[in-house]
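Input set for joint prediction.
Command: fold jointly, output tokens.
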Amino acid sequence: MADNALFQFLLRMGDNSLILGHRVSEWCGHSPVLEEDIALANTALDLIGQTQFWLGLAGEVEGKGRTADDLAFLRDAWDYRNVLLCELPNGDFGQTLMRQFLYDAWASVMMGRLMTSSDERVAAIAAKASKEVAYHVERSGDTVVGLGDGTEESHARMQAALDYLWPYVGEMFDSDEVDAAMVKAGIAPDPASLREEYDALVGKVLGQATLTIPTDTFHHKGGRTGYMHTEHLGHLLCTMQWLQRAYPGATW
Amino acid sequence: MYAQMITAEASDEDPKLLEEFQARIDRDEKIEPKDWMPMAYRKTLIRQIGQHAHSEVVGQLPEGNWITRAPTLERKAILLAKVQDEAGHGLYLYSAAETLGVSRDELVELLHEGKMKYSSIFNYPTLNWADIGAVGWLVDGAAIVNQVALQRTSYGPYSRAMIRICKEESFHARQGYHAIMQMAFGTPAQKAMAQDAVNRLWFPAIMMFGPSDSESVHSEQSMQWKIKVRSNDDLRQQFVDQTVPQIEYLGLDLPDPGIKWNEERGHYDYSDPDWSEFFNVIKGKGPCNVDRLNDRTNAWEDGAWVRDGLLAHGRKKAAARTAAE
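tokens >
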């Protein structure tokens, strides 16, 4: 069980960065301004780099000889363990950056905790990722503030993005038996324990952005357990996995 | 690579200044932003550097076309890093153009209005994964041949930009060749993709150097001012000579039956590309011109609210700072 729980945990980490990195990469060449093209490509690149570490370790822990690429390109939707937030469509630039901020804030708290993981491999990945994530959250936070507290139109768009995305935030703090096993082994924190720090960080930035956090506490779930993803994930995988599926066994 | 497209205007400037300027050029001195320069020199550079910058930016699109379909995490990361470099080159070149007294926004507007060009190569589609390798190897490879020459160009900021950009481009070309090697030495289907990519991109790549010198009426002035330092045909021949053995090493068929080693010349002979196609692409009739420009203008228009929002926020912050002082 312990190894399987660790495998599941690592898939959750790796799938989050893989799917979000993929989404961000969809922006290539279409940003509002050249600096943002660079920044988005850079963010996607960091996320894909983190994916290589998380899924590489996942394959190692699983012990069936699967590589990070096998896990990324040869699983079907129900085997993905990313939170739903990461697979939601880009929408406009505001929605993309709001999604990024809501994820980055979680990732920054999470990586901080994982740096003291009892599993050295996990701690090492988190230590590397934490530097990237610290920059990501600063950048996405600044952009959310700039657009939230910008013009009437940018404010309205950012509020709409927040209203759309907020019901997907809660899933990042759900706990189940996988998390319990990780807590017991000292590998990872209980996700619920991140919430206070997250709310403080997000509350501060959204306050500066003059945006209102929805009061409804309902949240969607089903991504991190794989029980029920959104319809969007299948289409993303169709694109991402196409070459590997169409030409099985080839080396690229 | 568009020096050949640029009109040098007859000038009524002070002959003495012109003479001194030419003397500086002849002494291989670099011209710097605050130095006196003929208006036609300035205009030529604005167009050439601006078009170069636009090429880097539009060049994101054919590669971005495959980022979401990259077959491995490593290939995806390499491609992301590459397009990030290209966008960075765009930024760097717009800055170089700005030293000549034109803003990035003005240049972008001219691009969107169809009044400025970008490299014709980016009006060709990327249709299979091997195209991504071929773009790095052939397109960046051709660009490097041109840009290494431009490191000696007479305008200081442009020359320095080229030195920096060439380092990254060389890396791209090697990565591209490595990617296409995987294909050429891979399964029969992969090899077929590699062959298809080379067949389609060969002539567009050698057209990147512009028409033959005998057809290129504007080359002479650009050469005299050392904006251009080597002729189109010279550069094209160098590219052909370095690339043919690479195609052979891959075990692919040569994309042009006219390619043959010429012992007497010490160079490969090759067929002249179909220049009517080149001029059609320049005029907007390439396979992707309309889509590429629409992509860029739509991105710009869709992003207007973002730019306005961030500017408005910047103004609010500045006002708050002023009020606090």
